């Protein structure tokens, strides 16, 4: 039982199956196109569906809720318009409170950095 029997002469072995194995190795059957298309359709149907994307405007909705809702946004818009109006065309009553002298109102934002820019 443990003896190894090698048949190198090409003659069929004790089972006589070598001819059948050789015939099976030589003939490679290819599946037809209809079978492959059905397999592909089944595979695509089994794929998971992509997750729903975020709706447009979700960032704006979160921003509005973070500011306090639409009443707060309306108040901010009104304050912005009032500030723009006062900055572009200030009323005459503000001259006593708000100086309009250019020497007093012009500020150099980088004045403190003059020494730092000299290097050294």
Main β-sheet description:
none
Dominant shape = elongated
Q: Could you give the distance between the termini?
A: 96 Å
Secondary-structure-based class equals: mainly alpha
Give the ordered list of helices and strands: HHHHHH
Question: Low-confidence runs (pLDDT<50, min 5 residues)?
Answer: none
Average per-residue pLDDT, rounded, comes to 79
Query: How many strands appear in the DSSP assignment?
Result: 0
Helix count equals 6
Rg calc: 44 Å
Strand content: under 5%
Helix content: 40-55%
Account of the protein in words:
The chain has helices spanning 18-26, 33-46, 58-67, 70-88, 102-105, 114-117. It is mostly helical and 120 residues long. The longest helix is centred in the middle third of the chain and has 19 residues, at 70-88. It starts with 17 loop residues before the first helix and ends with a helix.
List the helices and strands and how they pair.
Elements: H1 18-26, H2 33-46, H3 58-67, H4 70-88, H5 102-105, H6 114-117
What would the keywords be for this entry?
elongated; 120 residues; mainly alpha; 50% helix
């Amino acid at each position: 039982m443990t003896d190894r029997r090698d048949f190198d002469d090409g003659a069929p072995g004790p089972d006589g199956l070598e001819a059948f194995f050789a015939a099976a190795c030589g003939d490679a059957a290819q599946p037809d196109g209809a079978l492959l298309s059905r397999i592909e359709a089944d595979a695509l149907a089994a794929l998971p569906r992509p997750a729903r994307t975020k709706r447009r405007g979700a960032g704006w909705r979160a921003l509005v809720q973070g500011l306090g809702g639409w009443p707060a946004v309306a108040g901010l818009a009104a304050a912005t318009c009032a500030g723009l109006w006062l900055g572009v065309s200030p009323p005459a009553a503000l001259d006593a409170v708000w100086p309009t002298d250019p020497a007093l109102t012009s500020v150099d934002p980088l004045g403190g950095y003059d020494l730092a820019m000299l290097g050294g």
